[in-house]
Design a protein that fits this description.
By secondary structure, this protein is an alpha/beta fold. It folds into 2 domains: 8-251 and 445-464, Rossmann fold (3-Layer(aba) Sandwich), CATH 3.40.50.2000; 258-442, Glycogen Phosphorylase B (Rossmann fold), CATH 3.40.50.2000. Helix content is 41%, strand content 12%. It has helices spanning 17-32, 43-48, 88-96, 99-108, 123-130, 142-148, 151-154, 185-195, 204-214, 228-238, 258-270, 290-303, 329-332, 346-350, 364-372, 386-395, 413-424, 430-438, 440-444, 446-464, and strands at residues 8-12, 36-41, 60-64, 113-116, 133-138, 217-220, 242-244, 277-281, 307-310, 337-340, 355-360, 377-379, 399-401. The strands form 2 sheets. A 7-stranded parallel β-sheet has the order 3-2-1-4-5-6-7, sandwiched between helices. The chain has a 6-stranded parallel β-sheet with strand order 10-9-8-11-12-13, with helices on both faces. The relative contact order is 0.12. This is UDP-glucosyltransferase family protein. Keywords: Glycosyltransferase, Transferase. One of its GO terms (molecular function) is UDP-glucosyltransferase activity.
Length: 466
């Protein structure tokens, strides 16, 4: 890099791999430019992150803060993947107890900036006191953040006009352009149930609003060429600089023991016809109910297509709700389908020529990986930002969602089978197969991603000089 002073940037993601991995991607991109990064998390999370490429490893330092002990949080649970949804509140309680250890580290560091997630509502005043500037790095997409409201609504200065759940099934009044992006009733109902509990006495909205209020700059996953109207809207709503981080396509890296796991999977995929396999995976957090698992399984069976299903049967060893496959399902689909209940290397699977469609939860990292590998998407949403993501993809004809009852979210095995076959095989699904290829340049263009990081770093340097 130039002779000018290198920045020291601290990264502090929420305790979920859907957050930690995008943060690590940005850390690598920053380090490639010659800047120093301190990546802060807890011991087990750091151990489970993918290996760093040799060219950036010297510039990225992992800072391991011991996970605070909290009642009702299982031993060794340090990430959302380790616990069921009903335990999330205790994970956030433990996260908030990282305030003092993080403060101690920041005080002893020479950091210029800290890029932080939505959860540490307490971080802004701490960083200001030490003399470190904050970037709120939101790993959800611009429509998700815009849907929360303008800064006046986020901070409670103005009342949110949405007073009942039904109000969230239409675009809010502050969105000035035509869009179909909104929640379905069953999605917002599920979100309300999960997030109605105030973790550590702090609501989800207060966490986000505090981060927006106390930061200098907002960095958000996405690119202005893909969704220009949403970026412009966010700038107006939040009254802060809003910068794109790019889509952050996954780079070539290995998790520990990935190669051994991959060899067995690859052997099975190698024996399947080109573009014939349905890959099914709903991420590390989304868990279908037992009834949903039954319908998904029977739908895969009725599709008469080969499938590879990564099924999270339980969240951590303490999770009592262990999901079961329908009786006789594995015998009836033997040789045609595989159900994997362990971790599997998603990027390698998606990159295999046997995969014809990706049946996903609409988590944005999975969406980006589908686009990277030109795999058309069938969607089924479960929680948090997935409903908004799905609507964005539907609006752009990039994915097709399994039809469900709008009120309770129920669906049938027949609808699963029909949707998969439509997207993979039928003429009606051709547009989804073609569009996923057409947007690839917007998602994985290296020069564009590089430009976004250059713009971010130039912005951070200029703000320090003020």
């Amino acid at each position: 890099m130039d002779e000018e002073k290198a920045l020291h940037i601290v990264m502090f993601p929420w305790l979920a791999f859907g957050h930690m991995i995008p943060y690590l991607e940005v850390a690598k991109l920053i380090a490639q430019k010659g800047h120093q990064v301190s990546y802060v998390s807890t011991p087990r999370n750091i151990q489970r992150l993918p290996q760093l490429p040799p060219n950036v490893a010297p510039l990225i330092k992992f800072v391991s803060l011991p996970m605070p002990k909290v009642d009702n949080l299982p031993e060794n649970a340090e990430a959302t993947t380790d616990v069921s949804w009903d335990v999330f509140q205790y994970l956030k309680d433990a996260f908030d107890k990282l305030e003092q250890p993080l403060t101690n580290f920041l005080e002893s560091s020479d950091a210029d900036w800290i890029l932080h997630d939505f959860a540490p509502f307490w971080l802004g005043p701490v960083a200001t006191k030490i003399g470190i500037k904050c970037v709120f790095f939101n790993i959800t997409t611009p429509p998700n953040l815009a849907f929360l409201g303008p800064i006046s609504v986020l901070t409670g200065k103005e009342k949110d006009p949405r007073t009942k759940l039904e109000d969230y099934t239409a675009p809010p009044p502050w969105i000035p352009f035509n869009t179909t992006v909104a929640y379905k009733y069953f999605e917002i109902k599920k979100n309300a149930e999960v997030f109605s509990k105030k973790d550590s006495g702090v609501s989800e909205m207060h966490r986000v609003s505090s981060c927006v209020q106390n930061c200098d700059t907002i960095l958000i996953r996405g690119c202005t060429e893909f969704e220009p109207e949403w970026f412009e809207l966010l700038q107006n709503l939040l009254q802060k600089p809003v910068l794109p981080a790019g889509q952050l396509p996954s780079t070539g890296f290995n998790f520990v023991d990935e190669n051994d796991t991959w060899q067995g999977i690859k052997k099975w995929l190698d024996n399947q016809p080109h573009g014939s396999v349905v890959y099914v995976a709903f991420g590390s957090e989304a868990t279908p109910s037992q009834e949903e698992v039954n319908e998904i399984a029977l739908g895969l069976e009725k599709s008469n297509l080969p499938f590879f299903w990564v099924l999270r049967a339980q969240h951590g060893r303490k999770d009592k709700a262990v999901l079961q496959l329908p009786e006789g399902f594995e015998d009836r689909t033997k040789g045609r389908g595989v159900v994997c209940t362990d971790w599997a290397p998603q990027m390698k699977i998606l990159g295999h020529m046997a995969i014809g469609v990706f049946f996903s939860h609409a988590g944005w990292t999975s969406v980006v990986e589908a686009v990277q590998n030109e795999k058309p998407l069938v969607l089924m949403t479960f929680l948090v930002d997935q409903g908004i993501n799905a609507k964005v993809l539907e609006e752009k004809k990039m994915a097709y969602t399994v039809p469900r009852d709008e009120q309770d979210g129920s669906f049938t095995s027949d609808s699963v089978a029909r949707t998969i076959r439509l997207v993979m095989l039928e003429e009606e699904g051709r547009i989804y197969r073609e569009n996923i290829k057409e947007v690839k340049d917007l998602f994985v263009n290296i020069e564009r991603q590089d430009r976004y990081i250059d713009n971010l770093l130039d912005h951070l340097k200029s703000r320090l000089e003020r």
